[in-house]
Amino acid sequence: xxxATGKSNAQISDELFMSVATVKAHVSSxxxxxxxxxxxxxxxxxxxxxxxxx
Length: 54
Description:
mainly alpha; 3 helices; 0% strand; globular
């Protein structure tokens, strides 16, 4: 989960061969669907769910 590891939209877009705008749209959609306010909350949720290492 790239957002949870602190990657920027540009880094994610390069990794997944998507435009930055597409990545922004997906991140925004995640925030809305999960009722979160920012990327840090996504990272914390992923960590608490055991989806990240460390």
